[in-house]
Amino acid sequence: MNAILISKTGGPEVLDYQSIDQPKPGKGELLVKMQAAGVNFIDIYHRTGLYPKELPFVPGLEGAGTVIETGSGVKDISPGDHVAFATVPGAYADYVIAPADRTVKIPQDIPAKQAAAIMLQGMTAHYLLKSTFALKKGDIALVHAAAGGVGSLLVQIAKLCGAKVIGTAGSHEKAERVKSLGADQAIVYSEQDFEKQVQELTGGQGVHVVYDSVGKNTFEKSLNCLRPLGTMVLFGQSSGKVAPLDLTIFNQKGSLFFTRPSLFHYIPDRERLNQRARDLFHWLMSGDLVLHIDQEYPLSKAATAHEKLASRQTTGKILLTMDD
Ligand code: NDP
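A: This is the predicted complex of the input protein with NDP.
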């Protein structure tokens, strides 16, 4: 089978398209013939070594496909079933070994590509809005990189929660997309001072919560956008790591709450994985959530997909697709 193999960390050029042995499923595992794998920012962190992994490895955590074979002890999934996953290593490959308890069955009405595209970023938006800071009607949320993969889902689900949403984006074109997703306001933060804009838009009150995935370039101003007792959710670092800081800053800026969450802790078992997936699939089928698959590349072009994502040339989702 073909797969992308990383033998040393580095730039997109280390994503090596190779022929490797097809794995066999062990106890509790599935052999999945992949239809599509999602490309996510975490794949870039793994590739560069920012998040260390043992070498060599096949990158990717997200995807969807058809079960070809099941290992012993798998009870409720059979060959022929369509499944998707968000946290299974090795997704950039024609075939993947997935622990059954980390997969969800895809409802019949949802194409595999859509399922692959919603899993990781959708689960992330779901836990951030439903669990990390349970957003409610009347709350005001600031969402950075709101035209991106997680961002575009955060905007839509935050509106489903009844909140007011201010989104930021790196270009006017992206800001238009953010508005079309339902955001109440969109700020082009590459040109405008988003802190000043947020203060103006909230009558100097500030927002209840900031969902910040950009990190280094936005963190400090994001804190200044919060009202007293507001919550800072730093969930990524697309522009780089936030520098170490003096914790008294959270007192000085209004007894703020701070968290640095990770998806893995919010889907620790199959029950919670299924609960979140059920909501996402339901919203997709009802049309409440609209997925934008911006770019698709064959598996062999994974490097191009990484270049586009890292250089801010994408909105919504990027997929790698496998040959039939
Ligand atoms: P996105 O589609 O959001 O792409 C990243 C976006 O970040 C870019 O399009 C760009 O949007 C913005 N950005 C701002 N500054 C930079 C920069 N210097 N370099 C690159 N991009 C920049 O990616 P994902 O949806 O895959 O991931 C978004 C973030 O969420 C990542 O930081 C990721 O690590 C994090 N994440 C965290 C999870 C968790 O559980 N903690 C789970 C999943 C994702 P613009 O041009 O509009 O500024």
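Residues 210 and 222 are 7 Å apart (CA to CA). The chain is about 30% helix and 25% strand.
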